[in-house]
DNA sequence: CGTCTTTGACCGGCGC
DNA sequence: GCGCCGGTCAAAGACG
């Protein structure tokens, strides 16, 4: 019924996949219903996604992906996927140099965003909470894109970090985030939060593309001759894209709270995803601790702030 | 008429 | 053991 980025009856996001709604529920702690979708590109595709409005900012949609696609992707999805792979590998090589995150908000290497989508290997967030040391959060395989003039930041939580990357356990660190909605909503005035300029934007956390077998099998490298230049460009573009969203703070806090909040005693709805992700982050496979069903679940999270063209999300 | 959405019911996990 | 909650199912209605 509703679309995130346009299109017809069968929900199709800019990820190129088709989705069919199979359920809707009112989740505790959020007055807005959560919608459940299945990938319809293949009858046997196990991929599911959940779409829910951000409780702090009703104009933002939070989408969570689960599972891996077991079928070829449409051209549009493949295109995005290839971009993801290439950019990710670029960042991959860059991150291997242990480049520190920018102190203010996020680190994002780059390339020209004019082509619509640039996927990053990772995004790092520093939440300065004086006088305590700032907290650094790291998202692997993230991306920033500008679809239809809508800046998009993608934090892909579905894929494990490269084995040679000694990322801090980024997810476990989210337990440092405030878990109350009041903290989240007030974050806009806190030094721990990013500040935004209002503009039409499109903010995304997570994405299913990296789950596609085709992506995983694709060559992980792309020739980049000037990593430093690209890095600076993307960093600027990423910062601009993210800072253009006025709702990022509340959305991020809310999303992360719901996603991994269980670490801090929050609601347990994100336990599966949070658990799997934190396991990946720590370089462990969760298989020994989860059942086969849960093993199939890999989480990724998307936030969709207001869009001029997007129709309503799950009805309130 | 086929496909998709809606929505109430059902089921399983988890905390008390 | 019970109740709460999230996730899924499936029948009915809507739409093209």
From TrEMBL:
Keywords, comma-separated and alphabetical: DNA-binding, Nucleus, Transcription, Transcription regulation
Low complexity bias locations: 100-110
Checking InterPro entries in the record gives: WRKY_dom, WRKY_dom_sf, WRKY_plant
Residue ranges of domain WRKY in the record = 8-74
Q: Where is this region: Disordered?
A: 88-110, 282-316
**According to its UniProt record, where is this protein located?**
Nucleus
Q: Which GO terms describe its cellular component?
A: nucleus
Tell me where it mainly resides. nucleus
User: Which Gene3D superfamilies does the annotation name?
Assistant: WRKY domain
Q: Where is the composition biased (Polar residues)?
A: 282-299, 306-316
The terms under GO molecular function for this entry are: DNA-binding transcription factor activity; sequence-specific DNA binding
Entry keyword Transcription: yes
> Which Pfam families does this one have?
WRKY (PF03106)
Name of the protein described by the UniProt record:
WRKY domain-containing protein
Q: SMART domains given for it?
A: WRKY
